[in-house]
Amino acid sequence: MKKSITSLLKGWCAALLCAGLTLPSFAAADADAAFAAQRHDLKLSLHNAPLREVVTAFTQQTGVVFSYETSLGERTLPHVDVALNGSTLDEMLASVFAGTGISYKIKDKVVALSAPPQSDAPAARSAAQQRKQTVAGRVTDEQGEPLAGVSVLVKNTLTGTSTDADGRYSLSVSGSSAVLVFMYLGFQTLEEEVGARSTLDVTLRENKQILEEVVVVGYGSVKRRDLIGAVDQVDSRQFAERSNPSVSRSLQGAIPNLNISMRDGKPSRAATIDIRGTGSIGSGGGALVLIDGVEGDLETVNPQDIASVSVLKDASSAAIYGARGAFGVILVTTKSASEGEVNVTYSGSFSIHSRTVKPNLVTDGYEWTTGYINAWNGYYNGSKELNSTINNIVPYSDSWYRELARRSTDPSLERVRINDNGKYEYFGNTDWTKAFYKDVNYSHEHNLSISGGGKNADYYVSGRFYDQDGIYRVGDERYKQYNVRAKGSVRIRPWLRLNNNMDFTVVDYHQPMLYYSNQLVPRMVEHSGQPVSLITNPDGTWTYAAVLNGYAGFAEGTSYQQEDKFTLKDKLGVEIDLVKDVLKVSGDLSYLFSRNTRERVTNMYTGYTGPESTITVNESQGSTLQNVRYDMNYVSSNIYAEYTPKLGDDHSLKLLGGWNLEKKKYRTLTVKREGLTVPSKPSFGLMDGVTSDPTVGGYDWSYVGAFFRANYGYKGRYLAAVRRRSDGRSGKGGRHLAEFSCRYDGSSKFPQNSKWGFFPSASVGWRLSEEKFMGWSEGWLDNFKIRLSAGSMGNGNIDPYKYIDYMTLKSSTVVIGNALGTYTVAPGAIPLSLTWETSTTYDVGADLDLFKNRLTMGFDWYRRYTTDMYTVGVSLPAVYGTAAPKGNNASLKTNGWELSVGWRDSFRLAGKEFRYGVKAMVWDSRTWVTKYINPTGNLDDYYEGMELGEIWGYRVEGLFRDQDDIDSHATQSFLQSSDKVTRPGQVKFADLNEDGKIDQGAKTLSDHGDLTVIGNTSARYHYGINVNLNWNGIGISTFWQGVAKKNWYPRYDSGYFWGQYNRPFGYMLKAHTGSNVYSEELDNWDTAYWPRYSAYQTNESSVNRVLTTPNDRYMQDVSYIRLKNLTVDYTFPAHICRKMRIKGLKVYVSGENLWTSSPMFKYCDNYDPEVINAGDSDFRTTEGDGYSYPMLRTVTLGLNLTF
Predict the structure, then answer these.
(1) Angle of helix 398-408 relative to helix 365-380, nearest 10 degrees?
(2) pLDDT per residue over 807-857, tens digit each?
(3) Rounded to whole angstroms, how far apart are CA atoms 960 and 1078?
């Protein structure tokens, strides 16, 4: 198999590369379907301008190419004044050329203009023609129903009115030559000359262009009206005027059931993406991302290059991509070259960023120290005196505390003194968070694109530069990203076209890092950033605290992480029309190379505890230099044929068949050495310490698959599709539509006897609105389609080599001869059989368009079964000597639904058209484990019947009122104080099993004590709301996004939540002050939220700590609503642009994450509801929820300029 694949690949590469020599370096793929799918904004304001000027401005703004006779180009158009947003080409052409006598025809992306010869009649009009006259009438649709709100304008004037509820209108015109323009959203624009008529009734015809929108799907495109899979698409407007470092941030909440979560606001952070919920708890696997058909990373795409993003959600839609698309596919289509004159477009922006949430901490030294003492005594209750130092950093004594109290009332007093032992004593009020972090940081972005060409060759070249400075006041954090794309095509013969699409991305990210164990700033500030400590001593030396918490290392700039990423992709393709419009063969060869390098440098730092006393931290670890390199090479190839026979007007059929090959090689190399001799010049050549053994890793895998898809349609009513891929895939087809596909996949990851899998899918659709029995609804129902689909797909995302029995060699600590000896260990057990996880999805959906396409609705319900998941097997006896191997042992079931509703309309305001639109989306999914090997029912593992995300914990009845309340309650054996005595004000748990004691039993399904399911960490009821308005060139759009249900219980070491309930020397929260905390003096057991102030309630993961195990009192509702984006823009009129010698100009102000509301803010105001994960995945993820890069609020000023 390997030899045959290799030979096929070599032959295909040779053929394509030879043909590719004829291409210019910028050549790229044409995408007529993607071009047709794009909607445009158009604003023209021209007076007495020749036609050639009008179409030139039209082309500059939209890229549409025109053809016309030279003489026609000189014809004067007296008044062209249109402002359209998101309109189709037909709508734009009708608005521009209405009443001019000019007709148009669209063919091969070219608009051909024609007109009869102009009359030689004199321009002067008789006085009779100029007399005022009143014209009235009624406007109806094709069924005779009145249309209310139709705009009726006198052409080339500001005179106008609108129809009433009965469709009637009346207005005065000047002379019989006046022309009335009738405009109504969802209908074709109509122009009528008044003549001698005083009554003018008109009938408007429905414009079904919205149903002709083209949606990109696997290996092609399909009209929206013929779509029978669960597919959603957004176009370039989703990304325009939003200065985000990555595409995924702009997609969040924009497409139903495309679930995107951002763990923080770091510019390099990749999103966590799933489509329709968790797909597997075994091999894992999320959405497959294809950028112009090549697997890629959303974070590497220039957002301004994107033409559309399609999400294939059900098995029927995604099956064409086989095993890689088991849990959905994201198709990114970039902008294509446009024929005609050269277009140069520049867009630039400047942004200001700030944290969405700033930690609300006590930074007054005396108040913090008082809290420290109270938390200590709350736990020890007089059984242990305060230590002589606070966490071995700040010297403590009663006399120092009294002096701190005195100095806190007099700001003029010094904040440091030297005691009798020659040591510094500090009396500061240092806000370490503010010392580390800026209030605002900045970024700027620049995009430049050039496109042009003709019928035989075209090109599109773009470049982007994004630069964001850091959030740290100290430490040179900087993020830079460069994107370049070049694509185009050349037609060698009428039947042969070659295309090429190349892009590369360079990322340069420099981050300061802590010298110790990849620790995090919030964690180190919590432990060694007490407010009483200062940053520097009076002589300018570092304090011990500044060295320990990392501030000194940041400021000196000698501990950092430097990341450099380079990604190159190239796709070479060929299209051969064997029989024009009937049989077409296409092929492509893609190559992806990425190299990521990471350099980490750590150094030692010296702090002064007295003028003559020093402590050097990090001596045990020493200074280090580590280099890590990640290389990835990926090659894929596709060859497929499309057959579209001519079957008459009633029947349509399209067959697609082909094969694809994918091969990936991944390598890692890590080199580390200790002992930097010159801290400012990290180099392996300037080191004198131990060199660690280089660590290497990597893997190779390959896929091969054959696929087939058949689409059939009958009279536009019944739609069906069949996909097959030898891995299993399918295809599409009027009133009745059907699609069948299948795919047959082979993977190198599986043993020889289970390499191959067959995965079929099918879908059918019925457009009821085209049936005769639905004639009663013609006046208001434009489209009603129901869809059914079912299919199965393999998930081949298992790690390579899981089925191979191998032994690893290691170095021993024993010297044999002159070298360390080597040894090996017995291999682990391997599964007897290993095969594909299978995802089977059933989907029922409906699409509706009503009231002349003003109202659109879409709904899907689905169920997905994931079987044969790769999880742990049956436990083996201890004497066997190794753990049980994993295998195909588990299953999941997911139920979900999604709903989208949109409304768009327009009316006249001050003589100008006012357009508005609203779209709302909501979706949900839940997943249960239906099979899993967990014989004891251990609650710390998956078990059958479990809903993913369950939180097991205690119910809380409140706080103990008094001793009688304690005595009459079940026994609580938690370590709430050092003497294990329960006191008033402590948390009171419910004895659910009524056995007289609070415990968790054996923590199994059969014996879980007082534990019960109290919440769920899975996000439920995602939603997004988009509102846009446009009038006279002014546009306003808002996008709201949120989650209606989600729970979170903070980790035991999350200082931003637990404060000094965790460790007494940690953060003191302002939320933990006042009457919201229980105190004996206030006796507020019934109104306080927080219990008796005491340390060590959560500082360990041990279940013996009272607040470590989740409970429903301190579990947080982290649902939220967020104003994700607000944009205000203005498009300059064409006549102003002409004076400026440019083709178009738009300016805008945009805001991201401007406002957020969440129930968690009532008691927990130190967290953004999205930044609640533990740690920072670049460094450390094991400690502290929210100890990460903050989520950022952004305000952007930008412009788009076309030359």
Answers:
(1) 140
(2) 777 767 677 766 767 777 777 777 777 888 899 999 999 999 998 889 999
(3) 10
